[in-house]
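Sequence in, structure out. Go.
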Amino acid sequence: MERLKLLNGYINDLRDLENVDFVTYQENKLIHRTVERTLHLAIEACLDIGQHIIANEGLRPPEDNKTVFVVLHEARIVPDDLLEHLTRMAQFRNLIVHDYARIDHAAVFGILKRHLGDFDAFAQAIVMYLRLG
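Output:
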């Protein structure tokens, strides 16, 4: 699946920036803008993958981005322990798209440092679904 390849590329790009310290992150607008945009693209890839599976499987239509992951969870594609992380991911996407003037550098830096594994877990869940499906 092409979107999985894109997601993997985005996560690898973010991992290249994982060792940046917070002061550098905060002061270097090219770094924090790159992280914000790449996180946005990674989230969009997850949402696209989810919406594609929902459509192909004839699952209930999601009401919003958060619900994409809820529907995948209901279909036992997304595991219990990942659902909350994915719904927060969708909320973060809405913030960086619609309320970008209020982006908190510390929060984004925290995602970079602590939550890239959520993308890996999502990709693994999708790969498992594709293999079993």
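Check: DSSP finds seven helices and no strands in the chain. The longest helix spans residues 29-57.
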